[in-house]
Amino acid sequence: MEKGGHRFFFDFSGKTGLLPQREAHHLIRVCRKREGEKILLIDGKGKEYSGRVLKVKEKGKDLSVEVEILKLLREEKPPLIQVRVLLPLLKGDKTDFLVEKGTELGLRGFIIYHSSFTIPRISLQRLSRLREKALSALKQSGRLILPEIEISYNLRETLKNLPESGCLKIMASPEGNLTPEEILRQIKSGLLREVILLSGPEGGLSSEEREEALLKGFSEISLSPHILRAETASFALMSLLSYLLNL
Fold this sequence. Notes:
- The protein is an alpha/beta fold.
- 32% of the residues lie in helices and 28% in strands.
- The protein has helices at 21-30, 94-104, 124-141, 155-160, 180-188, 207-215, 230-245, and strands at residues 7-9, 16-18, 38-42, 47-59, 62-75, 82-88, 109-113, 148-152, 167-172, 194-198, 219-221.
- 33% of the residues are buried.
């Protein structure tokens, strides 16, 4: 088993258990692992283990793979400042891309929202795909904490229920005057527990949604002197926060 090799997600308790079907397929059909071989296992909660393939049963397209946890290899502690992102549901696979990149950057959670100008509608199948994208990005990047993904069908109600204290709220906007220096000052203050990011969909936020965000304490930041696509603004905002948090 090589350091930095393929990682496989497990969600059972105890020392032994079955891998999820998708993980079992990847382990056997793609990575060609066999009984007795050692593998890397992650629990999505911050821990990586060495493990061993105990038993493989194949029945048609179905696979049953039992694995054993051997020892803890490393642990990723939750960051002192958690970052959640209110991501617009975008056309095509643009939201998938943002969830992947946000996971790589170490963001703690995503709230995929519908707004007044959102065109696509999310399905349970799409939500499942987003979670798979996050898990794939987690394994690829070497991170160990799987972000949470929630759905908001009413952005204004979601904004109303956000926390009040210990939280910095930032919204991407061409009219913004918040500076990276001010964000960094607040990060270094030691008073923050969470940062919440918000960027608009393809059609932008409605005036009511923007007003609700401002009433809820969001500060606006301009990310470019030019007009950015929705996915570009989201990615730029996530990247900026990730950079500032690591200074």
